[in-house]
Specification:
The structure holds 2 protein chains of 2 kinds. Chain A is an alpha/beta fold. In chain A, 32% of the residues lie in helices and 24% in strands. In chain B, 47% of the residues are buried. Classes of the chains: A alpha/beta, B mainly alpha. Chain A: One of its GO terms (molecular function) is ATP binding.
């Protein structure tokens, strides 16, 4: 491990993912804190597979080599829950058995007193314009509201980097703009290295960072 | 018949199928329950009971050990159900995303197909003082030169009964949970929770289980009902003095002194009460857990002794698999044993005598058992396919309430309503026998066939039918030439499930056949009560083989017949 890997950048080192021996994705890059790297490509090209590998959910059908360095740790060797990567999915996936506040509490780390937890949840709700929504059933929220809660849930878990899996694709065009600016401003604010997978050019534009285009291997 | 007439007939039979299913399930259960209420209060004209009163109850309450029986039924039912549920939760939580889980998934259907009685006999033989387990450990570890002196099966606390029940409840609940996982987006929620830093087990407990449990609540209740009212397993593994209530009910019912039927009816009603009490206690437990866990779910704690629990989960799996494997081995050895003195682990010489002496009787029982099972299964399958087809034709999913009716025979203690049916049989002077037994089996076969087939039937891509219709196929043709062939594998599996359920039935055969209809199961259970282990083992193995053949055919036939249709093969 070289010294400059111990910083806050997300270093994808010599990653090579294969499906039954056939090369699928190969990547070697550094994502600096606050930078958003966009990975684009047609469906089936392995964007989601790359994301699953980094997050720790790679299907056993694939074989993968390479290292994922973040803050001096090689994440590729750690179970998913110890990687501290905030993953935003296509769907907000709020837990239906918990209230809106409960979902945020689920994300919040344990090192808070009960009162601090309450305040942290209220503050997070206020930041996304949902003050007073803590006791609401997530099923009663609109699509945009749910996405915002999902974002805050991830941020409250204090991730070291963000992974975005087509996070805006299921939103209406009007909402998409708002959500994009919210997500990217929070990422810059928290100075998190971010990898975004998308097939929407507008996402890449809004992210404003480098764009990596994956090509089919044939 | 003309084309359009046939189509009209098809629509009509499909339209009545759901009503037929409801009638087939509701009428016997409700009628059966009604059939015990009269005699329980002294009214049964066939036996000269015309005076309404509480005399049967007074006789019942004078029976020695009644309270112990009730207590034992409640204790074994709740403990075994809780044990099975905890094991399922632990297995899913610790191993859902591991490789060993695929092995477990493969083993589930064969495990489910094992009839209760055969499993109970196997476990009893394995753990009894002179069983294979103590032989394998003796004398080198235990120092025993003679079978030790402990009571098993039949220990007074019902531990052997609980073990036997769990061994069958665990695979059932696991299968129902696996079917429910996609419905509650388990995978996605698990991944969300893990990326938020939750260990797999805690992620499952906090993020998946609260959504999964409501979906498997009905199967859990069915397990509790079964455990609280089982007769065959309790006869084989349960304590004998006092027995569980259900066993005594059957004994009183079969008493040659017919006047005991009044008291037996009161006892059967009591059994219904015991089962309801067990459900009520469980339901209160549910409330308590929900109340106590609400803060814990969102307190942010991300790990709970995970390594420890994961070890426990794999330990459990291996224990259960060893238990069942060794039970099977024990049965095979006993069936081939001649002289087999105690600490010897391996009988020598092996002999086919036990099998030979059983041949004549066994062959006729095999025929009888298969005939009943095939008839009950095919009738059930027809009705179930009709129900599912009507959902498609009339674009209306069965309402939750109708689903509940499908579960009805699994949610009412069979001993209660079957006994009532016997009373009605006697009242109306219907001949007990083959036909009544087959109809009785259908009560239990139909729900399982429905459970097994419904998901595949409902999720078949509707575009196949749309393509066929656009090619000018009539609904009848779509049904016969498109839908059924595409569902070959699920249909065969559902048939195998129904067949296995029927083969395993003990109580309906015993009661509705009035002792005149014998199957492999009734024979194995009655032999298990006697002393001949070798012959019992032969019958238990036969009883186990029949469903195994069924599943073998369900999986093997498509591989053979559809070998050039890869997309239709079982996965």
């Amino acid at each position: 491990m070289s010294n400059n890997d111990a910083d806050n950048a997300l270093h994808l080192e010599a990653i090579d993912i294969r499906l039954q021996g056939t090369p699928l994705v190969a990547i070697d890059t550094r994502i600096e804190p606050g930078e958003v790297l966009t990975v684009m490509g047609p469906s089936g090209v392995g964007k989601s597979t790359l994301l699953a590998f980094i997050a720790g959910f790679l299907d056993p059908a694939f074989s993968a080599r390479g290292n994922v360095w973040l803050r001096g740790r090689n994440l590729a060797r750690l179970p998913a829950e110890q990687r501290r990567l905030g993953l935003l999915f296509q769907d907000p996936l709020l837990f239906p058995h918990l209230s809106v506040g409960g979902n945020l509490g689920f994300g919040l780390r344990r090192d808070h007193s009960r009162r601090d937890r309450y305040h942290a949840i209220e503050t997070a709700l206020a930041e996304i314009g949902l003050s007073g929504y803590a006791d609401r059933d997530p099923a009663t929220l609109s699509g945009g509201q749910r996405s915002r809660v999902a974002l805050m849930r991830v941020l409250l878990s204090r991730p070291n980097a963000m992974l975005l899996d087509e996070p805006f694709s299921k939103l209406d065009t009007a909402l998409r703009e708002d959500m994009r600016s919210l997500v990217f401003s929070r990422i810059h604010q928290e100075n998190l290295p971010t990898l975004m997978v998308t097939h929407d050019e507008a996402d890449a534009e809004a992210a404003g960072g480098r764009v990596l285009r994956l090509m089919p291997p044939y | 018949m003309t084309h359009s007439l046939r189509n009209r007939l098809f629509f009509q039979s499909v339209r009545i199928a759901p009503w037929l299913a409801m009638a087939l399930l509701i009428v016997p259960v409700a009628g059966g329950l009604a059939g015990i209420i009269g005699p329980a209060f002294g009214w049964l004209p066939a036996l000269d009971g015309h005076a309404l009163g509480l005399a049967p109850w007074r006789t019942l309450f004078r029976q020695p050990g009644l309270l112990d029986m009730v207590g034992l039924s409640l204790f074994t039912a709740l403990t075994s159900s809780l044990g099975a549920l905890l094991q399922v939760v632990l297995l899913l939580g610790a191993l859902l995303e591991s490789r060993i889980f695929r092995l477990i998934q493969r083993l589930l259907s064969p495990l489910l197909a094992v009839p209760h009685a055969a499993a109970a006999i196997g476990i009893g033989f394995l753990l009894t003082p002179s069983g294979l387990a103590s032989r394998l450990l003796s004398p080198w570890l235990t120092g025993w030169d003679h079978p030790p002196d402990y009571l098993f099966p039949g220990d007074p606390y019902g531990a052997s009964l609980i073990l036997g029940l769990m061994a069958k409840e665990l695979p059932f609940l696991l299968l129902m949970s696996l079917a429910a996982l996609p419905q509650c987006q388990a995978r996605e929620h698990l991944h969300v929770a893990r990326t938020l830093g939750y260990s797999s087990l805690t992620a499952f407990l906090k993020g998946v289980l609260p959504n999964l449990y409501p979906l498997i609540r009905l199967p859990v209740y069915a397990v509790i009902v079964f455990a609280s009212a089982t007769v065959d397993v309790a006869m084989i593994l349960g304590p004998s003095n006092p027995t569980t209530l259900a066993v005594s009910v059957v004994r009183w019912l079969n008493d040659p002194d017919l006047s005991r039927r009044f008291m037996a009816s009161a006892a059967a009603l009591t059994q219904l009460g015991v089962t309801l009490t067990a459900l009520l206690i469980w339901w209160l437990g549910e409330r308590l857990v929900i109340k106590l866990s609400s803060g814990w779910l969102t307190n942010g704690q991300r790990r709970h002794a995970d390594t420890c629990l994961a070890c426990l989960a794999s330990g459990l799996i291996w224990f259960m698999l060893t238990l069942l494997g060794a039970s099977l081995l024990g049965l095979i050895l006993w069936s081939l044993a001649g002289y087999w003195p105690f600490p010897q682990a391996w009988p020598w010489p092996l002999t086919a005598d036990n099998w030979r002496s059983a041949t004549d009787n066994a062959l006729s029982l095999l025929g009888q058992t298969s005939l009943i099972a095939v008839t009950a299964t095919l009738l059930s399958l027809t009705v179930v396919v009709g129900c599912l087809e009507s959902e498609i034709q009339y674009r209306r999913r069965m309402r939750p309430r109708s689903q509940l009716i499908l579960y009805l025979p699994l949610l009412v203690p069979p001993v209660a309503f079957l006994f009532g049916l016997v009373q009605l049989q006697a009242q109306w002077r219907l001949a007990p026998g083959w036909f009544a037994v087959t109809l009785g089996h259908m009560l239990f076969v139909l729900p399982y066939v429905f459970l097994s087939l419904s998901e595949s039937y409902r999720h078949l891509d509707p575009r196949w039918a749309q393509v066929a219709v656009s090619l000018q196929a009539s609904p009848l043709e779509v049904f016969w030439r498109i839908r059924l062939p595409l569902l070959t594998v699920p249909l065969l599996v559902a048939t195998a499930v129904g067949f296995a359920v029927s083969v395993g039935q003990f109580l309906p055969t015993l009661l509705l056949g009035a002792g005149r209809v014998t199957t492999l199961t009734t024979e194995a259970v009655s032999l298990a009560g006697g002393g001949d282990r070798r012959l019992t083992a032969v019958y238990a193995l036969l009883q186990l083989t029949l469903p195994a053949i069924g599943f073998g055919l369900a999986i093997g036939l498509p591989r053979l017949l559809l070998r050039n249709r890869r997309d239709l093969q079982p996965s």
